[in-house]
Amino acid sequence: GPADARGTKAIIDQIAHREAREASVLTALRAGAEDVASLVETVYTDVPAIMHGLAADSVRSILISLERRGVVQLDGDRVRDPG
Q1: What is the per-residue pLDDT across 1-39, written as a single tens digit (0 to 9) for each?
Q2: Concatenated DSSP letters for 64-83?
Q3: What angle do CA 51, 56, 61 make, to 5 degrees?
Q4: How far apart are CA 39 and CA 50, in angstroms?
C-alpha cells in the first residue's frame, strides 16, 4: 500500500496497539482463559468472526513472546502459568 504520511507516529501507534493487545491477553489469562481459541473470543470482540483465524495467529505471536520472557508456558494452543 501507499506510504503512511504519519511516519514515526504510525509505528508508535502500532506498538501501542500491540502492547494493549498483550495486556488484554494477560488479563484474559488471569481470568481463566487457557487456550488460543478462548483468548481470541475474549480479546478480539472488536474483530468480525471471519477474521478470528488471523486473530489466533496474532494471539500465538503474543504468547510466544510471553513464553520467551517466562510469563507463560505453551503446549500447542494451550497456555499455563509457569509458576
Answers
A1: 677 777 888 889 999 999 999 999 999 999 999 999 999
A2: HHHHHTTS-EEETTEEE---
A3: 130
A4: 16
- Bridge partners (DSSP) of residue 35 are 78
Written as nine digits, the cell of 62 is 503474543
Rounded Cα distance between 41 and 61, Å, is: 16
Q: How far apart are CA 15 and CA 9, in angstroms?
A: 10
pTM of the model: 0.85
- Paired sense of beta strands 73-75 and 78-80, if any: antiparallel
Lookup: cell for 14: 502500532
d(CA 45, CA 28): 12
* Of 21, 74, 66, 28, the residue nearest 47 (C-alpha): 21
What angle do helix axes 52-68 and 8-30 make, rounded to 10 degrees? 80
